[in-house]
Amino acid sequence: MGNDSHKLIKKLYDLGLTEREAKLYLTLLEKKSFTALELQQIAKIPRTKIYEVLQKMIGRGICTQRSLGREKIYEAVEPEVALNRIIKKSETEFLESLEDKKDIATNLIKTLIPKYDENKENFNPLEFIEIFKSKDQIQKKYLQMLDETNKELLTFNKGPYVCDNSSRLNEQQKHETELLLRGGVCRNIYEVHELIKHEWLMEYINDQINHGQQAKVIDFLPIKMIISDSEIVSFPLPQTIGTSTDITLVFIKHRQLAAASKMLFNYLWEQARDFKEVVGELNTTITIANN
């Protein structure tokens, strides 16, 4: 059997025929009619199987059987008719299977809905809260928050910071810039003493303002806080015991909490002063002090 025959058998197999049916059909196309013995010898199908395969092909409508004296003769049905019959049968079987699955799904829905409703009553009040402790985990979660924010990110920005190295800082800048470029709003409030304490922070804010961040400065922020799209609030809480600078990040998806947190943010935003104005005053003070 040549390569062309193997390819044709493969295509007929893909169409829904068995390998033996495909071999027999291609053999039947080689002349007008065959006996079962001739087909068995040419197609190399065991004698015990040849009649079984032929009867299935007759049932599919791709082969016919007629009697010539005592001999049974087999002929191929014209390819266009035969293959369209296969497609039609496959379509019918698919639709029947689909209807069966719809019936099963309908019955399952009736069974499963009460179970679902029953379990909804067992509400876990902590299921919308996530807690992260390592700086690597917090960095990853914060970047995810930036990527998933569509409209607005509000931040009370104060230390201790997760971005305690240039790599983390650059990652945060990149993801925040992407948020700004896709039309998102970033409003940040910083503590004035943080600007004096961290030289890198001043440079970071200037860069982000150039990309569209809105920045203000206030004397004191009560907490470090991030609000995403008025529905997610993150509180990176510093340790209160000892002198550790470790942070625990509490990530809460809760619209009412987000709404209350946004009210606090907007109140302090109105109290805060423009970043460039404050920086100008700081630079003047430093210049006078140096003189």
Structural features:
2 domains, 291 residues, Arc Repressor Mutant, subunit A, 11 strands, 58% helix, alpha+beta, Endonuclease, Chain A, 8-stranded mixed sheet
What can you tell me about this protein's structure?
- With 291 residues, the chain is α+β, with helices and mostly antiparallel strands.
- It folds into two domains: 3-82, Orthogonal Bundle (Arc Repressor Mutant, subunit A); 129-290, Endonuclease Chain A (Endonuclease, Chain A, 2-Layer Sandwich).
- It is 58% helix and 19% strand.
- It is built from eleven helices and eleven strands.
- The protein has helices at residues 3-15, 19-28, 36-43, 47-60, 79-120, 135-148, 166-181, 192-197, 199-211, 255-271, 275-290, and strands spanning 34-35, 63-68, 71-76, 129-132, 152-157, 185-191, 214-218, 225-228, 232-238, 247-253, 273-274.
- The strands form two sheets. An eight-stranded mixed beta sheet has the order 4-10-9-8-5-6-7-11, sandwiched between helices. Strands 1-3-2 form a three-stranded antiparallel beta sheet.
- Helix 2 (19-28) packs across helix 4 and helix 6 (135-148) runs parallel beside helix 7.
- The mean pLDDT is 87.
